[in-house]
Amino acid sequence: MNLIQESFQRLFPDKEFSYQTKLEYNRRLADFNANIRLHQNNIQINLNLQWKDIEDEIKIGLIQHLLLKIFKQKKLTTPNINLYNNFVKNIDILATKTKPDPTLLLSFWRVNELFFYNRMEQPNLQWGQQAFRKLASYNYHNDTVTVSTIFQDQRDEILDYLMYHELLHKFHKFKHKNGRSSYHNKEFKDTEKLYPNYQEMEREISKIIRMKKTPKKSRWRFF
Ligand SMILES: [Zn+2]
């Protein structure tokens, strides 16, 4: 069975399928990642090798999800896409575990105890780059919380506030409303505000960003 054609025809039963297809598994893509390319009438899909052992019905959901991107019909949904979305929600259980950074691990423990009754599974925890815009992130494909190195020398409360935000992403997984995922919806923001002094944290984070953006030289030297 050609999975791409099968996925297409279940998605668009009335359309004719007139494409050359290529489906490849490779190791270069990140955990459970996939991409799609449409060039003239060639559709090429690359899947991370981990997808090889996953059931076809789920893969069809993934392929349909990718097809909707290139055909710009993001609002459509199918039973297979629902299956795929449910699968993705549990991918963190399958993700490869890496050795966590000790500072981030302590932060995770504090936040897990205080806000999640120690019920949250430990994700992978790592420092990212010295980023000023993407301060921290949670990647559900590889179950990893990444924090910008600009917070490496900050007090626990700041780090824990960022950790809390990212763990909320792991906690809520991602919810779909009319085919759109809503990461920072009202429910998310309401739970985020449960963090003590969250407004002060926000202010302090802005301050840290301003400070770190200014090169040391101009900060300290007087002209
Ligand atoms: Zn977020």
Plain-language structure description:
The protein has 223 residues and is of the alpha/beta class. It folds into two domains: 3-89, Zincin-like (2-Layer Sandwich); 94-216, Metalloproteases ("zincins"), catalytic domain (Zincin-like), CATH 3.30.2010. Helix content is 44%, strand content 16%. The strands form three sheets. The protein has a three-stranded mixed β-sheet, covered by helices on one side. Helix 1 packs across helix 2, helix 2 (56-70) crosses helix 3 (79-89) and helix 5 packs across helix 6 (156-172). The model is unreliable at 176-180 (pLDDT under 50).
User: Total number of helical segments?
Assistant: 9
The CATH architecture of the largest domain? 2-Layer Sandwich
Name the shape in a single word: elongated
Q: Helical percent range? A: 40-55%
Looking at the structure, the CATH topology of the largest domain is Zincin-like
Number of domains: 2
Class per helix and strand makeup: alpha/beta
Contiguous uncertain segments of 5+ residues:
176-180
The biggest beta sheet is recorded as:
3 strands, mixed
CATH class of the largest domain: Alpha Beta
Considering the protein shown, what is the CATH homologous superfamily of the largest domain? Metalloproteases ("zincins"), catalytic domain
Side by side, the strands of the main sheet go: 1-3-2
Strand content: 15-25%
Order of helices and strands: HEEEHHHHEEEHEEHHH
Q: What is the typical, i.e. mean, pLDDT?
A: 89
Radius of gyration: 21 Å
The rounded distance between the terminal residues' Cα atoms is 73 Å
